[in-house]
Amino acid sequence: MKFSNDFFFGAATAAYQVEGAIQEDGKGLTNWDEFVTIPGKTFEGTTGEIAVDHYHRYKEDIKLMAEMGLESYRFSISWARIFPEGTGDINPKGIEFYNNVIDECLKYGIVPFVTLYHWDLPLPLEKEGGWLNKNTIDAFVSYAKVCFEHFGDRVKHFITFNETVIFCGHGYLAGAHPPGIKNDPAKYFQATHNVFTAHAKAVLAYKALKQYGEIGLSHVFSPAFAVDDSKEHTFAAMHANQFGINWYYDPVLKGEYPEYVMGLLLKNGTCPVMLDDELASIKQAAPLNDFIGLNYYQPIRVEKITEPFEALEPTRENSTGAPGNPSFDGVYRTVKMNDKRYTKWGWEISPEGFVDGLQLLKDYYGDIRMYITENGLGDEDPIIEGEVCDIPRINFINDHLVAVKKAIDAGVNVKGYYAWSAIDLLSWLNGYKKQYGFIYVDHNNDLVRKKKASFHWYQEVINTRGENLHN
Ligand code: NOJ
């Protein structure tokens, strides 16, 4: 079970979910800072104002990560700390903060793995149309260049975007993320295309600087499997994967859109405006993209919808990953199956689906380097006699690391695993009710940090390079 020495054992966070200090040291407000103030959008009205105060406690947090033996820390930069208005003047305090975080990691030999966009868009850009406005593409590329120029001497791993399908899908179909628009497929596809263009242009800008690091992007990886092998459900799974995987991965890895999806978008009038220079950038950047990051939590089980149905009104509760929803186009629905295991939030637990899914990706995209940039268990951790006994998380991560190893042994090129999350943090929609971390944060006692059972366990995994994992 031993992982090779060049495989990163890591863990991840995102700026909005940990930092807090949303208006400190010149930081501008973001789409999220505003969105969460709308009543009913988040569980108990939680906001990122304080989160877990990582902005002030990053030294303590990184020290704990180092004690756990973490080899790499994936965190995101908040664009509005660097450019409070999204464009224009740089905020030196923002640069200083991330310089400090990077240097703190390096002090312990922790490799910083930096996400440039983990959903928090500077508010002025959102007000001007956000990802529907093509100016946002240029603004992103300028911001990305500033990050490469200031941090690229020490950061050699950049992720442009995190989970396009979620911030666009929740933003323009489910209405559960900013800008809170519901059921608008044309806007949804337009936003995704603008993001792929921004990614491509950022990759080209990065390579032009010759910093000799790597750049890629992180997608949700939720492979669809048919509920049985009937023709109609097999078709449903193919359709789901075309829209959920190929639409997202093809432009990044192949430099073009999947014909199947394009055909349908053209037919039903939801094809985005795609300018020639944008398509040329997407084509040119694909071979320069170094890796793909996969955020794997669960596969989906799908069945073809054959009867007329009434779509559920999208809400916070039914947009957060649990099965039951029809696809936006009414072709299939996700199904909860009796013979599968689920988390408290109704997410399927399936390390087997992970192995099969990774194989599927290899079949589609060949030897591309992959990092598992997120994987973990959201749970309400039991506290017994003051100790956080998160045994279900240990079992979950054990089984998924074993799955990764199986995939590697079968020839899939996976180079690292980042547990979500390094420390308990603010869930975008579920507040603090749902925990993911190795480090507990006590919200009743000054946000004091405490090591969970999983902290000691992961330490041992890293120490033995996986030899203590069990099948
Ligand atoms: C993926 C997102 O990147 C992260 O921000 C979120 O907290 C986790 N999924 C868990 O839902």
Lay out the secondary structure.
Layout: E1 8-12, H1 15-18, H2 31-35, H3 54-68, E2 72-76, H4 79-82, H5 92-107, E3 111-117, H6 123-127, H7 135-151, E4 157-162, H8 164-172, H9 185-209, E5 214-220, E6 224-226, H10 231-253, H11 259-268, H12 276-285, E7 291-295, E8 300-304, E9 332-334, E10 341-342, E11 348-349, H13 351-365, E12 369-374, E13 383-384, E14 387-388, H14 391-409, E15 414-420, E16 439-442, E17 448-451, H15 453-463
Parallel strand pairs: 1-2, 1-15, 2-3, 3-4, 4-5, 5-7, 6-8, 7-12, 12-15
Antiparallel strand pairs: 8-9, 10-11, 13-14, 16-17
Helix pairs in contact: 3-5, 7-9, 8-9, 9-12, 13-14
Feature tags:
471 residues, alpha/beta, TIM Barrel, 8-stranded parallel barrel, 3-stranded mixed β-sheet, 17 strands, 16% strand, binds 1-deoxynojirimycin
Low-confidence stretches: none
Helix content: 25-40%
Radius of gyration equals 21 Å
Distance between the termini: 9 Å
Number of domains: 1
Query: What percent of residues are in strands?
Result: 15-25%
CATH-level-4 superfamily name: Glycosidases
Please tell me what the overall shape is: globular
CATH class descriptor name: Alpha Beta
Rounded mean pLDDT is 96
CATH arch. level architecture: Alpha-Beta Barrel
Main sheet specs: 8 strands, parallel, barrel
Q: Assign the CATH topology.
A: TIM Barrel
- The DSSP helix count reads 15
Query: What is the spatial order of strands in the main beta sheet?
Result: 1-2-3-4-5-7-12-15
Bound ligands, named by name, code or SMILES? 1-deoxynojirimycin
Structural class call reads: alpha/beta
Secondary structure: number of strands: 17
